[in-house]
Amino acid sequence: MFDAIRPILFSIDPEIAHDLSLSILPACAFAATPYKTLALAMASDFDESQLIRLKTRALGGILDNPLVLAAGLDKNGLHTAHWHALGFGSVEIGSVTARPSNGNPRPRLFRLPRDQAAINRMGLNGQGAAAVSQRLIRQRQNQDLGVHYGINIARSNRSFATVDQEIEDVVEAFASFAGVSAAYYALNISCPNTHDGLKFEIDKTDSTLSALAPVRQTLQKPLYIKISNDAATDFVDDLLVLLDRHEVTGLIVGNTSTRRNNGERPLETSPARIAEIGAGGLSGRPLFGRMMALLSHLDARKPSQLQLIACGGIDSADRVLQALLAGADATQLYTAMAYKGPLLPVDISADLLQRLRRAGLSIQEIQANRHTASLRRSLGLGEP
């Protein structure tokens, strides 16, 4: 059905289409509920006890499946009641900043259909931490929260006179969420689309985590750091030492890219169109290869307790399984739904469940035995 609707959506300005899609999300979630029920019932051979195979070890095993909606879609926590019906195990709200922001001037969102990708320079537009926090508290009071959610927090999109002011801004945003029932928090140190390019250096990340320590004691929730898919290996090696010292739960690998390629290959989109679009972060299918390389690098060097969430080019059960075998504890997706439709998470979960049931495995068993040579074949995957 989405194949018939997509040409209409793609004839509209991307940001208008994005806002329109969110406006009809409650109707989509209502319609998706019977589809999800039937798809998972068929995948499980009508045995509800099989659904436990989809549970991941991430966040203490509270997620129904390893699919998390990446930050950037539900920036202000307006739709938390609906994401579970669309097949997600969790949703990441944000990025949220201490101060409200209109973001960067339009146009700031661009499709690359030939690459199943997008470029955005939204600039952390959002209502600000106080408004989002109050909304989430009201939703909890009204029992209107449909899924476990995390909150992604970034520095406000403005200039700061000193690094200390910048860090205070981040701490203020985190402190706004005391009393909110988030499952986890994420610190975004890698957004390329802000006033001066939000890419924290090691020393600044260290100082920020030190300043956050009292707030983390209050929140008592896991903390993840979202890094760039462009991150250099020496940076992430230094970061691993830092995260161990500050008892950070894990890394989200990773944010959009300022590069304009698909691994070793150029994008299918014409160079002229890429130049016309200009600055911004690339997301979608082209990021998968570099995300996997960074994930594998981290997995070989991280302490065992540090969790990894894969984000970049996830759009199928195959890619979810490849990420899990490379060391991911869960996966995130967003851009893929623009090309494959809002029911994509349900379709991925059903495909995963079918494969797991045939192989007699669960997600957690894959994660525990992922170096077993025969595992890829039993899951229907080719050679890496």
Helix content: 40-55%
Shape: globular
User: How do the strands of the widest beta sheet line up side by side?
Assistant: 1-2-5-6-7-8-12-13
Tally of DSSP β-strands: 13
What is the makeup of the main sheet?
A: 8 strands, parallel, barrel
Write down the domain tally.
1
Assembly classification: single chain
The helix tally amounts to 14
Poorly predicted runs:
none
CATH class: Alpha Beta
Q: In CATH terms, what is the fold-level topology?
A: TIM Barrel
Query: At CATH's second level, what is the architecture?
Result: Alpha-Beta Barrel
Look at the structure and give the mean pLDDT. Answer: 93
Which value, in Å, is the CA radius of gyration?
20 Å
Q: H/E order of the elements? A: HHHEEEEHEHEHEHEEEHEHEHEHHHH
As a percent range, the share of strand residues is 15-25%
**What is the first-to-last residue Cα distance?**
32 Å
Strand-pairing-aware structural class? alpha/beta
The CATH homologous superfamily is called: Aldolase class I
